[in-house]
Design a protein that fits this description.
- By secondary structure, the chain is mainly α.
- It has one domain: P1 Nuclease, CATH 1.10.575.
- The chain is about 60% helix and about 0% strand.
- The protein contains 15 helices and no strands.
- The radius of gyration is 21 Å and the shape is globular.
Length: about 325
């Protein structure tokens, strides 16, 4: 059996950057020139690891808001809240309300957090909502860029605003990438996220370190990174049927990952993760993440197309700058 501890460090966000770069490459034919820029790609790739960097800050308020965005424990939805994954409400606070109603019906079922805890031990996570919300924020940021490109392109003030708007696009492309890549890793979709819990007739590992090994160590074993994977994987962007609301594609992406929780544990038990079988498994997960992300990038750009109403609405929020001559 592998020693997770010796392999689960020092690889960091390489997998997240790989998914980001693969998606950017796969979506490039549908993106504007300013997005298909090497420096812009670098900015998106830097931002894709920001949600994990936030975890290292160590402030309770930030942990409370940020940490549940990285996962959805699908089994817990029905077990604790009587909510079917396939029938999750599309809006975050509708989901919160449904959980609150379940907790009100049977408060004894839920563990109480210590006063200084981040207050998240009972939460099944908000990963699909993080994906959905950053997608629509990306649409809004892309639309701002389209609008600013139309307004006085030779105006230095507008040019400065456009550069800031493009930075906002890079930010949301990176943050969205993080959530999509997390969802492609099966252990972000299950109560068995850091070792198997409960009944265990198949003898799966209960070691906490398996999560970090899948996140990082196995990539090191197989030498997987953006540098080694670009040009070697053919990424097919997912087709987003409703660019205004890609909820179905988001749930489907997470569901595909969740279906692989037990196969992943079985490969670990049988020492196959470091073999070609394990390599193929991880490559498929990275490819699925990149394909989903590329499809969402393309859909967001399509959805950001500007109408006359968008122009009027945008101008409502304009205000002369004190630096304007």
């Amino acid at each position: 059996m592998l020693s997770y501890a010796t392999l689960a460090h020092a690889w960091g966000g390489i997998g997240h950057v790989a998914v980001t770069e693969l998606a950017l490459d796969a979506a490039s034919s549908e993106m504007p020139e300013w997005i298909n820029n090497a420096l812009f790609h670098e900015r998106v790739a830097f931002m894709c690891n920001e949600p994990d960097r936030r975890r290292g800050v160590g402030l309770t308020c930030l942990d409370h808001e940020n940490n549940p965005e990285h996962y959805i424990d699908i089994e817990q939805l029905e077990r604790d809240f009587d909510i079917s994954y396939d029938e999750l409400p599309t809006l975050r606070y509708s989901f919160v309300l449904a959980m609150a109603e379940a907790m009100h019906r049977d408060p004894e079922r839920f563990e109480q957090d210590a006063p200084d805890d981040a207050g998240i031990s009972w939460m099944p996570g908000f990963l699909p909502y993080a994906m959905h919300e950053d997608y629509v924020k990306l649409v809004a940021a892309m639309r701002s860029c389209r609008l600013l490109e139309q307004f006085a392109p030779d105006d230095p003030l507008r040019a400065n605003e456009l550069e800031q708007a493009k930075a906002e696009v890079a930010y949301h492309m990176g943050i969205l990438s993080h959530w999509v890549a997390d969802a492609a890793q099966p252990l972000h979709t299950t109560i068995h996220h850091h070792g198997w819990i409960g009944k265990n007739p198949e003898g799966y590992t209960t070691e906490y370190g398996i999560h970090a090994f899948i996140d990082s160590g196995v990539l090191k074993v197989h030498d997987m990174s953006a540098a080694t994977l670009l040009g070697t994987l053919e990424i097919e962007p997912v087709d987003v049927a409703n660019t205004a609301n890609p909820w179905d594609e988001i749930l489907a992406h997470i569901s595909r990952s969740f279906e692989l929780v037990e196969p992943l544990y079985a490969m670990d038990r049988d020492d196959k993760l470091t073999t070609d079988v394990g390599k193929a498994f991880i490559l498929e997960r990275l490819s699925d993440g990149a394909g989903t992300l590329a499809g969402l990038y393309i859909a967001a750009w399509e959805q950001s197309e500007v109408s006359d109403d968008d122009i009027a609405t945008y101008l409502l929020y304009e205000s002369p700058s004190p630096h304007t001559p």
